[in-house]
Design a protein that fits this description.
two-stranded antiparallel sheet; 2 strands; mainly alpha
Length: 231
C-alpha cells in the first residue's frame, strides 16, 4: 500500500483526489459555465420544459400536464426510496466489517484494507447516497410546487397566465437540476464501490463515469435530437 497517513495510504488519497476532481470538477464546469452548459442536453431540456409550460396555457383541460409531472415525480421517488435501502445496507456493512473484509479480500487483485480504512470507504458511500437522497427529495418537493403553480394558472391565455407559466417552467427546471444532481451522485456512488477493491479501480471507475456522463450529456443521439428540435 505504500506510505500511509493514518489508515489511508497515499495511493488511496491520490485515488480520492481523482474521484473528487471528476465529480465536482465536471459538475462545476457543466453547471456553472454558461457557454458549455448551453451545448448540453440539460440546457436543451430546460427550453423544452419552458415550451411545454407555455403550450399548456392554451389547453382548457390540463390532465395531461398533471400526469406528466406525476410521472417525473415517480422517477425521483423510486431513486430516493432506493437510496434509503442502500443506506440501510451500508449501515449494516459497518456493523459487519470482518465479514466484508473477508469477502473483498477474497477477490482477485483486491488491495489489503485495514478495518479503519474499510470504515472510511463505507463512510464515503454513506455520504454519497445521503447526498443523493436529499437532492432527489428536494427535486420531488419542487415538482410538487410546480404542480401547485400549474393548478393556479387561469384558463385565459393572457399575460398573467404566461407569466405564471414562466414561473412554473423555472421551478420545473430547478427540480430537474436537482434530480440530475442526485442521479450523478448515484453514478459516482457506483464508482466509489470500486474503492472497496483497489484504489486504482476507483480511479478507473471515476474516469469511466466521467466519460459516460460527458457522452450522454454532450454527444448522445438524444442530445442531438433535443438540440435540433430546440433550434
Amino acid at each position: 500500500m505504500g506510505p500511509v497517513i493514518g489508515p489511508v495510504g497515499l495511493l488511496d488519497l491520490a485515488a480520492l483526489t481523482v474521484f473528487a476532481a471528476c465529480w465536482f470538477g465536471y459538475a462545476a464546469v457543466v453547471d456553472r459555465v454558461p457557454s458549455i452548459r448551453a451545448r448540453s442536453v440539460i440546457a436543451a431540456m430546460d427550453e423544452h420544459r419552458r415550451r411545454w409550460m407555455r403550450a399548456m396555457v392554451g389547453r382548457d383541460v390540463r390532465v395531461f400536464d398533471a400526469v406528466v409531472i406525476g410521472n417525473l415525480m415517480s422517477s425521483g421517488t423510486f431513486l430516493a426510496t432506493t437510496a434509503i435501502f442502500i443506506l440501510g445496507g451500508l449501515v449494516a456493512m459497518l456493523g459487519a466489517s470482518d465479514m466484508g473484509l473477508r469477502v473483498v479480500g477474497a477477490l482477485p487483485f483486491a488491495a489489503t484494507t485495514s478495518e479503519g480504512l474499510w470504515e472510511i470507504k463505507i463512510g464515503l458511500l454513506l455520504v454519497i447516497f445521503m447526498a443523493a437522497f436529499f437532492e432527489l427529495t428536494w427535486s420531488l418537493r419542487q415538482f410538487n410546487y410546480c404542480q401547485i403553480i400549474v393548478g393556479g394558472i387561469g384558463r385565459e391565455a393572457d399575460e398573467a397566465a404566461f407569466a405564471q407559466a414562466e414561473t412554473a417552467a423555472r421551478v420545473a427546471n430547478r427540480a430537474a437540476k436537482h434530480f440530475n444532481t442526485g442521479l450523478r451522485a448515484y453514478y459516482f456512488g457506483l464508482a466509489a464501490l470500486a474503492w472497496l477493491i483497489h484504489p486504482l479501480a476507483l480511479v478507473a471507475a471515476s474516469l469511466l463515469v466521467l466519460a459516460e456522463l460527458h457522452r450522454r450529456e454532450f454527444r448522445s443521439v438524444v442530445r442531438d435530437a433535443a438540440m435540433t428540435e430546440r433550434s
